[in-house]
């Protein structure tokens, strides 16, 4: 079986890890022992050469324009926070949670071309439509900061009158102070009272 650049050759019985390991041959010619769960999850895609290439891409100028583009910094940020091997504040909400970058976007030029086709302009942020989904063309869009804030996992989402919106959005639509509706919600009041436009007695 093949996983990324790795072709599984046989079981590695010499590996003393708790989980089963497999001897794999990488497309670059190197042979490595890889834990089976890392292969299935997509955590290990090469002997390490792929990561080196990505790092090399970040250091090159990509035809003379990448280092001067804000979009290039966006791409570097995505690649970094989706790396499960890094242990920091960014990766715990992305790479360590299983969020990945699709193979197509591991190349900056492919990401750049998609961004230009999808309406990117300086100042917009990349936003995943499904906050539990990967970074890929079908799950990403360019938004302003307000839209992105409304799409955070931590947002409180409420269904009201057959429509689901964040608590912040409902406060703006109904012209109610956000702290007021948040206080009502925190007290466990019914939704009808949380979004009541007149004062509660």
Q: Could you characterize what this model shows?
A:
With 201 residues, the protein is of the alpha+beta class. It folds into 3 domains: 1-46, no CATH class; 48-151, no CATH class; 157-194, no CATH class. 32% of the residues lie in helices and 17% in strands. It is built from 8 helices and 8 strands, in the order E-E-E-E-H-H-H-H-E-E-H-E-E-H-H-H. The strands form 3 sheets. It has a 4-stranded antiparallel beta sheet with strand order 1-2-3-4. A two-stranded antiparallel sheet has the order 5-6. Strand 7 (157-160) and strand 8 (163-166) form a beta hairpin. The radius of gyration is 23 Å and the shape is elongated.
Give Rg in angstroms: 23 Å
| Whole-number count of domains | 3
Average of the residue pLDDT scores: 79
Content of β-strand: 15-25%
What letter string, H or E per element, gives the SSE order? EEEEHHHHEEHEEHHH
Secondary structure tally: strands: 8
Please give the order of strands in the largest beta sheet.
1-2-3-4
**Shape, per Cα inertia axes:** elongated
The structure class reads alpha+beta
Topology:
Elements: E1 2-3, E2 6-11, E3 21-26, E4 31-35, H1 36-41, H2 49-59, H3 70-81, H4 108-117, E5 125-128, E6 140-143, H5 145-150, E7 157-160, E8 163-166, H6 167-173, H7 178-186, H8 191-194
Antiparallel strand pairs: 1-2, 2-3, 3-4, 5-6, 7-8
Keywords, separated by commas or semicolons:
4-stranded antiparallel sheet, alpha+beta, 201 residues
Question: What is the structure about, briefly put?
Answer:
This protein has 201 residues and is of the alpha+beta class. The chain has helices at residues 36-41, 49-59, 70-81, 108-117, 145-150, 167-173, 178-186, 191-194; strands at residues 2-3, 6-11, 21-26, 31-35, 125-128, 140-143, 157-160, 163-166. The longest helix has 12 residues, at 70-81.
């Amino acid at each position: 079986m093949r996983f990324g650049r790795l072709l599984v050759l046989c079981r590695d019985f010499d590996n003393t890890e708790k989980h089963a390991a497999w001897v794999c041959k990488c497309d670059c010619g190197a042979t490595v022992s890889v834990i089976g769960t890392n292969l299935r999850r997509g955590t290990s895609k090469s002997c390490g050469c792929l990561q080196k290439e990505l790092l090399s891409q970040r250091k090159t100028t990509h035809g003379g324009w990448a280092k001067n583009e804000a979009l290039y910094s966006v791409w570097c940020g995505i690649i970094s926070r989706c790396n499960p091997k890094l242990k920091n504040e960014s990766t715990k909400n992305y790479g360590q949670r299983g969020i990945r970058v699709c193979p197509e976007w591991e190349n900056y030029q492919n990401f750049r071309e998609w961004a230009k086709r999808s309406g990117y302009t300086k100042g917009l942020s990349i936003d995943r439509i499904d906050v539990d989904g990967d970074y890929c063309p079908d799950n990403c869009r360019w938004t302003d900061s307000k839209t992105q804030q409304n799409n955070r996992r931590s947002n409180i989402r409420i269904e009201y009158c057959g429509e689901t919106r964040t608590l912040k959005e409902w406060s703006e639509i109904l012209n109610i102070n956000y702290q007021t509706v948040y206080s009502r919600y925190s007290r466990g009041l019914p939704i009808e009272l949380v979004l009541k436009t007149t004062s509660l007695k």
